[in-house]
Write a structure and sequence with these properties.
Largest sheet: 4 strands, antiparallel
Strand content: 25-35%
Number of strands: 36
Helix content: 25-40%
Strand order of the largest sheet: 22-30-29-23
Length: 571
C-alpha cells in the first residue's frame, strides 16, 4: 500500500478560480477584438490613400465616390507609349482597361479578423493600389497597332558624290516594340499620367556612322575637291570631279567596312570625252583632194592620237586622293593611210578613160534626173586604193533633192519612180571604170537588154541596192568629170594611166523569145520587144602592147516582152 499526501480543499478551489478568471479575461479580450474589428470595418482607416486619392475615415459609399472622382481623369486619359523619339496613344476603354472601384474600396472597409488589417485600420491607412481589370486580348490588339506606329526600320547610311558634291546620309537604328512585355508593363502600371516607355528590340545598320565619316574624310572629300589634271602626250587637259563621280561607288563588306570602288568603263568614257573636248586626241585623217574651177586642192592629212585605254583607270583614280591631283596617260600615235605627200604625188596627170552614152533629149523627168546626177558626180576624187560608191555619192533619190519621176524597170516591166534615168549615168560610169582597169566590187546589169547601152557592159542602180561600186587600182588618184547636155552624158576619169584596156564581146547565146502581153491598166507602159540572151564580154589588160591578163564579164538578160497598152490613160 502506497502512502499519499492529502491535498487541502482550499488549494484546489483557488486553481479553478484562476482558470475561470483567465478564461473570462480571454473572452472579454476576444469580444473586444471582434468589436474593434467590427468597428474598423465600417470605414476606411484614417489617412488612407488609394491610387493617390485620399479616402481616410470614409465609409464604403463615400470612399467609392471619392475614389471615382479622383481617378476619373487618369483612367479616361489616353495611355501614352514612347519608343525613342516616337510616341503613340492608346484609348484605355478600347484597350479593355478599367478601374474596379468596388474591389479597391472593399479591401479597406470589409470585415476581417486578420490582425494585421485590423491593426492597420486602428492605427492609420497608408498608400494602397487601385484594383483594375484588364482585357488582355483587347489590350494586346491595341498595343500591336501602336507598335506599328512606333516601329522604325533600320536604314543604312550612305555616301554620295553625285554631281561632284559629297553628301553623307546617317544610318538609322531600327526598333521594334516588344508587344508582350509592353502589355505586361501597361497592365501593372495603369492608370498613370506619365508616358510608358515601351520595351523595344533594336536592329543596327551594317555600316556605322563612324565608318561613313571615315570614308568621307579619307576619300570622298579629297576625291571631289577639284578637277584632275591629265597629261596625254604633249597635251594637258582637266577632267572635273563631277564627270568622274558617276564612276565611284561605296560598297561595304560583311564586316561593315567601306572600300571605294570604280567603274572602269565609266572612267574611261569620262576621260576620253574630256580629252576629245580638249582636242588632246584625234583620229588619223587621210588627205583629201578637192577640185574648184578645175584646180586641185589637197586638204592635208592628220596624225591620229589616242589614249591607251588600258592605262587610264589606275593613274586617274590614284590622282583623286593625291596631293598633286595629276595623272599621266600614255598615248598611241596612228598614221593616215593617204598622207599629204602621197596625195600630192598622186594627183591626176591626164585622161585615163572616157565614155559617152546617148538618150532622147526630150525625155522629161528622165533627162532632168540624168543632168542632176551628173552635176552631183562631177569633181568626185577617188584616191589610189580608194573605193567608189555611186549610191554613196548620190544618196537616196528624193523630190527634196530635186529628183523627178522617170522610167525604171520593176519586176520585169517598165514603170516610173523618182530618180528614174540615172541608170544611164551608172552605165556611163561603169564603162569609164571598165576602160580605166578598175576592180568592180558591186554592179548589176539591167533586167533586160536596152539598145542604147553596150551589151554586157552596163549597170543599173537603185537605193540602197544594187550599187555601182569599184576600187581604184591605178597608181594615182582619179578625178571624175561628168557632164550631160544635148542628149548625151559623158564620164571621164583623169589620173595616172596604168593599162591599155580592150573589150571583146562574144556572141549571144541561150536566146529566149519575148511574149506578147495586152494590158488595159492605166499605168501600163508600152515596151519594145527584145529577146532574152546571155553574153560574155572579155576585158584585156595591156602594158606596152603586151597582154597581161584577161577578165570575163558574163551577163544574163531576160526577154523584154511586147506590151500592148489598151487603156486610154496608159503611156
Amino acid at each position: 500500500m502506497t502512502d499519499r499526501l492529502d491535498q487541502p480543499q482550499g488549494s484546489s478551489r483557488s486553481r479553478r478560480g484562476a482558470v475561470a478568471a483567465l478564461l473570462g479575461a480571454l473572452v472579454v479580450l476576444i469580444a473586444g477584438y471582434v468589436g474593434a474589428a467590427a468597428y474598423a470595418s465600417g470605414r476606411t482607416p484614417s489617412d488612407t490613400k488609394v491610387g493617390g486619392v485620399q479616402v481616410g475615415g470614409m465609409g464604403p459609399s463615400q470612399a467609392r465616390k471619392a475614389l471615382a472622382a479622383g481617378v476619373e481623369e487618369r483612367s479616361s486619359a489616353p495611355v501614352t507609349l514612347t519608343a525613342g523619339e516616337k510616341s503613340a496613344k492608346i484609348n484605355p476603354e478600347q484597350a479593355g482597361l478599367s478601374v474596379d472601384l468596388d474591389a479597391s474600396v472593399r479591401d479597406l472597409t470589409g470585415f476581417t479578423l486578420n490582425p494585421v488589417k485590423v491593426l492597420g485600420h486602428l492605427t492609420g491607412g497608408g498608400e494602397h493600389s487601385l484594383k483594375t481589370h484588364v482585357d488582355e486580348s483587347r489590350l494586346t490588339a491595341a498595343v500591336t497597332k501602336a507598335a506599328a506606329t512606333l516601329a522604325v526600320p533600320a536604314k543604312e547610311g550612305a555616301i554620295s558624290v553625285k554631281g561632284g558634291k559629297v553628301a553623307l546620309t546617317e544610318p538609322v537604328r531600327g526598333q521594334k516594340v516588344q508587344v508582350d512585355r509592353t502589355v505586361e508593363t501597361i497592365s501593372s502600371s495603369w492608370p498613370r499620367s506619365a508616358p510608358i516607355v515601351a520595351p523595344v528590340t533594336e536592329s543596327t545598320p551594317k555600316v556605322s556612322l563612324d565608318e561613313l565619316k571615315r570614308v568621307k574624310t579619307e576619300f570622298a572629300d579629297k576625291a571631289m575637291s577639284g578637277p584632275v589634271a591629265v597629261k596625254a602626250g604633249d597635251k594637258t587637259f582637266e577632267i572635273s570631279a563631277a564627270a568622274l563621280a558617276p564612276a565611284i561607288s561605296f560598297p561595304a563588306d560583311a564586316s561593315g567596312k567601306i572600300t571605294p570602288a570604280f567603274d572602269d568603263k565609266r572612267i574611261i568614257e569620262a576621260v576620253t570625252r574630256a580629252a576629245e573636248k580638249a582636242d588632246a586626241t584625234s583620229e588619223a585623217r587621210d588627205a583629201t583632194v578637192t577640185y574648184r574651177s578645175g584646180q586641185a586642192t589637197v586638204v592635208p592629212s592628220r596624225t591620229g592620237v589616242a589614249l591607251e585605254t588600258g592605262k587610264i583607270v589606275a593613274p586617274v583614280t590614284a590622282a583623286l586622293t593625291s596631293a598633286e591631283r595629276a595623272a599621266i596617260i600614255p598615248v598611241t600615235v596612228s598614221q593616215p593611210t593617204f598622207t599629204t605627200e602621197k596625195a600630192k604625188a598622186t594627183l591626176p596627170k591626164g585622161l585615163i578613160s572616157t565614155f559617152t552614152t546617148y538618150f532622147n533629149p526630150n525625155g522629161g523627168g528622165r533627162v532632168h534626173n540624168i543632168e542632176l546626177a551628173a552635176r552631183t558626180l562631177n569633181g568626185t576624187y577617188v584616191p589610189p586604193g580608194g573605193t567608189f560608191s555611186l549610191n554613196g555619192i548620190l544618196g537616196k533619190r528624193t523630190p527634196e533633192k530635186g529628183y523627178q519621176k522617170g522610167g525604171v524597170i520593176q519586176d520585169g516591166r517598165l514603170n516610173e519612180n523618182y530618180g528614174g534615168g540615172i541608170s544611164q549615168v551608172s552605165t556611163t560610169v561603169f564603162n569609164a571604170a571598165f576602160f580605166a582597169g578598175m576592180r568592180f566590187l558591186e554592179y548589176m546589169p539591167h533586167g533586160f537588154y536596152i539598145s542604147r547601152y553596150p551589151e554586157g557592159r552596163e549597170a543599173t542602180i537603185s537605193f540602197p541596192y544594187p550599187d555601182n561600186k569599184w576600187v581604184n587600182t591605178t597608181d594615182g588618184g582619179v578625178q571624175i568629170r561628168a557632164t550631160s547636155s544635148n542628149g548625151q552624158v559623158t564620164v571621164a576619169f583623169y589620173g595616172t594611166k596604168k593599162w591599155d584596156i580592150t573589150a571583146k564581146k562574144g556572141p549571144r547565146r541561150n536566146i529566149v523569145p519575148f511574149k506578147k502581153i495586152t494590158d488595159d491598166s492605166p499605168d501600163c507602159v508600152t515596151q519594145t520587144p527584145t529577146p532574152g540572151f546571155d553574153v560574155t564580154v572579155t576585158r584585156t589588160f595591156l602594158q606596152g602592147g603586151k597582154a597581161l591578163r584577161t577578165e570575163d564579164f558574163n551577163t544574163h538578160y531576160i526577154p523584154e516582152d511586147d506590151v500592148n497598152c489598151t487603156h486610154p490613160d496608159s503611156k
